[in-house]
Design a protein that fits this description.
2 domains; six-stranded mixed beta sheet; binds NADP nicotinamide-adenine-dinucleotide phosphate; 12 strands; alpha/beta; 9 helices; Rossmann fold; six-stranded parallel beta sheet
Length: 269
């Protein structure tokens, strides 16, 4: 088999259903780069640096469950990834590994294309890595995040760390804001009938975003559209976080519209 000049990979567990190989390979082809991108399942994040060296991989996406576990095994980590506590992008230059987080930029760009973030209130459901990326990004852009979580202790801890308010999930009905963002896995395939909140709650928000992208239109987004709210899909965030990875790895602007098209085509199938 021909060896590509530039090699990229996704590390996680599981990785079989990821859309990243499809999206990144389409982008590299369009950019005229002699590059490959493969999904590699790893049990332990400590395996990743050695595999990158041995397989001559210069850029990697990191997914569940290794986004935090990889951090101590890198030579440097960006300030944003340290604050978020998760790395989803690793770059290898001269044998040195640098970690970054593009989930927050992906989320902020998706939001920013839909509404002005500065001065607006964002109710973020969840307190895990995606929630932390959302809160970090919203604060960077001058927005006001509020954490809403099922487990009070975890939600309060994240809120304290970022200096924002916290509300328990069972009080979401009394919470208002400009935009509601779901960062929990509730509603993800195959549990597509589930939603983190009841439909009536959605009247309290003008915008509703789901970070889930499979299915493309989650129950939450369907309920929001039915209630006349404006919606933002997790696929937009997924494409923008991937595009930012390509910028970091290659210094070039990726074909974001093409990346969105291949992802949407696959998800619509
Ligand atoms: P995580 O660290 O495991 O956090 C999950 C959060 O969801 C926790 O706060 C948890 O609450 C809450 N949760 C889980 N099940 C729940 C339930 N049944 N009811 C209420 N709350 C529940 O996960 P993560 O890394 O943040 O990822 C979360 C999701 O983000 C993923 O499933 C993925 O769809 C999405 N994501 C999307 C992109 C993108 O590019 N579009 C990128 C990254 C992540 P407790 O604290 O109470 O346990």
């Amino acid at each position: 088999m021909k060896r590509s000049a530039h090699r990229f990979a996704l590390f996680g567990n599981p990785v079989g259903h990821s859309l990243s190989p499809l999206m990144h390979e389409a982008a590299f082809r369009e950019m005229g780069l002699d590059a490959s991108y493969r999904a590699l399942r790893v049990e332990d994040p400590r395996e990743i640096p050695e595999m990158m060296e041995r397989l001559d991989i210069t850029g990697a996406s990191i997914t569940i469950p290794h986004k935090s576990g990889i951090m101590p095994h890198l030579n440097a980590v960006s300030d944003s990834a340290v604050r978020i506590g998760a790395v989803n992008t690793v770059t290898r230059i001269d044998g040195r590994l640098t970690g970054d987080n593009t989930d927050w930029t992906g989320l902020v760009r998706s939001l920013g294309e839909a509404l002005e973030i500065g001065g607006k209130t964002f109710i973020v459901i969840g307190a895990g890595g995606a929630a932390r990326a959302a809160v970090y990004g919203i604060l960077q852009e001058g927005g006001v995040p509020v954490i809403v979580n099922r487990t009070t202790k975890r939600g309060e801890q994240v809120a304290r760390e970022f200096g924002c308010d916290f509300r328990p999930l069972d009080q979401i009905g009394m919470t208002t804001g400009d935009c509601l963002i779901n960062t929990t896995p509730v509603g993800m395939f195959p549990d597509t009938d589930a939603s983190p909140v009841g439909g009536t709650v959605l009247r309290n928000f003008e915008w509703v975003m789901d970070t889930i992208y499979n299915p493309l239109e989650t129950r939450l987004l369907k309920d929001a559209a039915a209630a006349g709210r404006r919606t933002i899909s997790g696929a937009t965030m997924f494409v923008r976080q991937g595009a930012q990875q390509i910028r970091i790895w290659t210094g070039q602007d990726p074909p974001t519209n093409l990346m969105a098209r291949v992802v949407l085509e696959r998800l619509n199938r």
